[in-house]
Amino acid sequence: MLDKVTRLLLVEDDEDDYILTCDYLEQLGSHTFDVEWLSCPEEAVNVLSENKHDICLLDYRLGASDGLEVLKSAVANGFRGPIIMLTGQSDDTLDSAALDAGAVDYLVKNEMSSSRFARAIRYALARRDVEDERVERLKAEAENRSKDRFLAHLSHELRTPLSSILGYTELLMQSEKNQHAHNELGVIYRNGKHLLSLLNDVLDLSKIAADKLELNCCDVNLDSLMADVYTLMRVSAVDKGLSLRFESQQALPLIINTDATRLRQILINIINNAIKFTNQGEIVVRAWTAWVNEREMLFFSIKDTGLGIAPEKQALIFKPFEQIADVESRDVGGAGLGLAICSELLTRMQGSIELESTQGVGSEFTLSIYPGNIRDVERQLLTFDSNPDCHQKLTTLSTSGRVLVVDDLKDLRILVGHMIASTGADVEYAENGKHAIEKVAAAEQAGKAFDIVFIDLHMPVMGGKEATIELRKMGYKEPIIALTAATMKGVKSELSALGFNDMIAKPVDSGLLYQVLNHYICQGKTEPVIEHDDSPAMTQKSTRYLLVEDDTDAAQITQLLLESLGVETVIAASCEACLNTLNEDAEFDKVLLDMHLPDGGGLDLAKQLKQRYPNLTLVIVSGAEPEPEKIEKLDIEQVLLKPINLGLLTELIEGSA
Q1: What is the pLDDT of residue 149?
Q2: Which residues contact 427 (CB under 8 A, 6 or more apart)?
Q3: What is the 3-state secondary structure (H, E, C) of 434-461?
């Protein structure tokens, strides 16, 4: 292999010195030089400006010209290579002037036959290599910043229309006027969520590739985290007629130190794949700890009775853009990103992922993470309870009496019934409103009337509203509690008018359930506690938000969602409109700022607002995650990542309550 040729420019007006210099350069066996000789200062400046040479030897005296001027002009014109100044005799003043002007070294010509010449050349070329590496690094960093800006912009542009698609669909699905189109709306909503999932995967993969993905580790309640995953994934399993079981056969640490969001993402991704590729049978999730290389690791296994994975595919599924199934011939598959992301995340969490699979039998994924030092952490057999503090509530709440739980979904009514029965009450069940009426009538006839009824609103045969009207006509005077996912404005007034005493939002929170039991059974209070919309509690000063968003559709759906939650919302479409609005009326509880506005950025606007209105609470709404240090510096309360939905806005409102 030939040595790299070093391109050297010699600027020298004496031909003898040119010949001698070439002889000295040939004696440097470590380098091969391609020497170009120029004697004209003006021509030398022009050639150096082209940046074609790796190094330059520049004579100080060029006839009547001064080599320092050539040096200064070359540096000013962008020559990046090292320049060594050649002088006839040593002169400290001249040497300092040369170094100040940008030379890397200086040599007296009679030293060129010595080892100092070789050292100066090697040093200068090493400097050139370092500079080249620095330039390449800066170039790569600039490209990465450009990529980051592009991804942030792309994320924003994709998430903004998704906000409208998912938001309007969510509103339509919750309206009783659109029950005839519920299936079609469900298709739109599921596909919108699928697009959002793909977007998140692509952005995660890009962060991993750019080494920009950071873990946010903190103490996490393992029992609660697993319960959250179970609650979310169980619906998908039930929809396919599958059984989903979570098991712990040994005492596990109650608290671990990890990134809860990423661990939840990994478990959901793998369990979702298991459900997707299983047509009958079950998915079993197990958790345990084991010592590996003198560290106690936390393990999970997700085992299914599904299709299994062919041996030739097993080596590919953890690579990006590889799919387990052929999406052209099957109704399953995907972008092939999820498992690759899981593998990368687990590596960053100091763990790993392994697969065992047999076609036609099923697959088992085993993954591990480092849960922090759990040597002294309390352990117990986990119940996968999303509200671990409720055990204390159960021990202090003791009830008696008869309770009827009405829900068309067996698992949900059994779950609610189990929580109620654990307090000491006698629980019976009904699967729809008609069945509930029959149970209540039979109980009263037998002299064993129910002390309280919990009833779902939306059920086949007869819903909860119709059943409650009939129960009140029958003379049933005990408390009736609505179980509903519809908690929009006006629902409380409507339910109170129909005869309900109270309501609990789905998914049912055990703490709220126990409060209701304590209020109506333990304390014997049966008067309605549902507040009418025109009651004193509702006629207080309403919550007001200012929404700064230039996308008309996104602004309208966010306004509708907020107003459905009882928040008066004013829209401003630009920075200028925001400032004008606040100039006339600054009485807002929160200001929601979009990151990208036609006349400025959301963070720049936030800075202005903090200066003018220091007491305003600011929330950034963005399609991409802004830099945390900028958010912290501006004292931003929260960042909402698009697409915006009812859940996010509910948390925002409740967080300030």
Answers
A1: 66
A2: 402, 403, 404, 405, 417, 420, 421
A3: HHHHHHHHHHHHCCCCCCEEEEECCCCC
> What Cα–Cα distance (Å) separates residue 287 from each residue in 245, 248, 517, 616, 627?
12, 5, 34, 46, 35
Cβ burial, residue 541 (10 Å; 0-12/13-18/19+): exposed
Long-range contacts of 489-492 (CB under 8 A, 24+ apart): 489/533, 489/563, 489/564, 489/565, 489/566, 490/533, 492/530, 492/531, 492/532, 492/533
Question: Of residues 301 and 203, which shows the higher confidence score?
Answer: 301
Q: Are 217 and 153 in contact (CB under 8 A)?
A: no
What count of other Cβ atoms lies within 10 Å of the Cβ of residue 291?
A: 8
DSSP 3: P
Backbone torsion region of residue 321, taken as left when φ is above 0, otherwise alpha when ψ lies between -120 and 50, otherwise beta: left
Q: Residue 299 and residue 370: Cα distance in Å, rounded?
A: 9
Q: Report the distance separating Cα 235 and Cα 232, nearest Å.
A: 6
Instruction: Give the DSSP H/E element, type plus range, for residue 590.
Output: strand 590-594
Phi, then psi, of 125 in degrees rounded to 5:
-70, -35
Residue 395's pLDDT band, with cuts at 50, 70 and 90, is very low
Q: What is the pLDDT of residues 22-76, one digit of tens each?
A: 888 888 776 788 899 998 988 999 999 888 888 899 988 887 777 888 898 888 8
Question: With b meaning 16 or more CB within 10 Å and e meaning fewer, what string describes 407-430?
Answer: bbeeebbebbbebbebbebebbbb
- Facing residues of 495 across strands? none
Predicted TM-score (pTM) of this structure:
0.44
The length of the chain, given as a count of residues: 657
Q: Which residues contact 43 (CB under 8 A, 6 or more apart)?
A: none
Q: CA-CA distances (angstroms) from residue 392 to 356, 397, 398, 504?
A: 41, 9, 12, 21
> What SS3 state is found at 411?
helix
| Parallel, antiparallel or unpaired: strands 452-456 and 402-406 | parallel
Please state, in angstroms and rounded to a whole number, the distance separating the CA atoms of residues 198 and 337. 8
Place of tokens 């790993």: 352
- What does the block give as tokens for 620? 């950034």
Question: What is the CB-side half-sphere exposure of residue 496 using CA atoms within 13 A?
Answer: 13
Q: In sequence order, what are the residues at sequence separation of 6 or more whose Cβ sits closer than 8 angstroms to the Cβ of residue 325?
A: 277, 307, 332, 333
Residue linked to tokens 């995953």? 229
Mean pLDDT of the chain: 81
Burial of 522 (0-12, 13-18, 19+ CB in 10 A): middle
Helix (H, G, I), strand (E, B) or coil at 231: helix
Contacts of 524 (CB under 8 A, 6+ apart): none
Task: Tell me the HSE value of 246 on the side-chain side, using a 13 A CA sphere.
Answer: 24
Are 33 and 4 within 8 A, CB to CB? Answer: no
Contact (CB, 8 A) for 57 and 70: no
Contacts of 144 (CB under 8 A, 6+ apart): 210
- Tell me the one-letter amino acid at 383: T
With cut-offs at 50, 70 and 90, classify the pLDDT of residue 530. very low
pLDDT of 526 reads 42
- Confidence class for position 563, pLDDT limits 50, 70, 90: confident
Is residue 198 pLDDT above 80, yes or no?
Answer: no
Cα 252 to its chain centre, rounded Å, is 27
The token duo for 239 is 């929809």
Under 8 Å CB-to-CB from 199, ≥6 apart: which residues? 155, 158, 159, 162
